[in-house]
Amino acid sequence: MTDLPQHVDIRDVSMRDGLQIEVPIPLSAKLELLAAIAATGVREMEATAFVSPSKVPALADAAELAAELHHFSGIEFSALVASPNGARRAIAAGLRSIEFVVSAADGHSRANVGRSSAEAAMQIPEIVAIAHDSDVTVEVIVATAWDCPFDGPTDPQRVLDLVTAATDAAADRLAVADTIGTATPRRVSDLIANVRPLIGATPLGAHFHNTRGAGMASAWAAVAAGVTRLDASVGGLGGCPFAPGASGNIAMEDLVYLLRDSGIHVDVDLEATIAAARVAQESVGHGLPSSLLRAGDRILG
């Protein structure tokens, strides 16, 4: 364990991971939600994904949404891509930061992108080169870093091999993702302790789902292990369409509550985040799993 950081950056993933399993909502509703999230003060936001509309119809309007992002200043927007073509499309749409997700498990990789993990990893250098040729930053996210819904527990060495491949390709950032919400604090600490020596000064982030109730504890374990970048969504919106049973990112308001009260600074306003979670709930038309959305702050109620 390291000393706790003074500051943690939170990237909101509501617009991509949050909406990808939902029935598609109109662009106007997305922009209303985006405005509510922007009002929280968050400085990083995953805006959409440039992937096949037939696979993720909720994000079929990626280019149209990207055309509206210039209205929101002070936020670094990124988009997820699953192929070199997706990277080119995202860059052509004006994104200055992209994320390439590579699953550490073959079962999930084939369900997600139709390729084995090794085949997907072979595209890392090309995607990094495409991005860097356009002065765009690229983050490699290692999905199913702890478990796969098809293959079971992920061999940690598979994660380390992908981290090494991304580092060798000069990716600008790295992240490990608990795609199906099975991680626990011990397993998070163990993996991150093995990842950090491989990446030098490359920033490391983490992405957790609260599917089995351990998402917040896992996020805390990541912070205690030295991670200073975490993903979250307002209301706990989201899940993976290619991972049966996976649902619910950790809720941004719950994470802000935990970190703020632990003396760790975040660039996000708690009340505004709860308000954004209410907008998200109205947008998708069903309840969301956030604890603070239900109970409120202990002081403000």
Automatic annotation (TrEMBL):
GO biological process terms on file: ketone body biosynthetic process; L-leucine catabolic process
Keyword list, A-Z: Lyase, Metal-binding
Gene Ontology MF term list: hydroxymethylglutaryl-CoA lyase activity; metal ion binding
Domain called Pyruvate carboxyltransferase: residue spans: 8-274
Keyword Lyase: yes
Membrane-crossing segments per the record: none
InterPro entries xref list: Aldolase_TIM, HMGL, PYR_CT
Pfam families xrefs: HMGL-like
Family of this protein: Belongs to the HMG-CoA lyase family.
Name by which UniProt lists this protein: Hydroxymethylglutaryl-CoA lyase
Native source organism of the sequence: Mycolicibacterium iranicum (Mycobacterium iranicum)
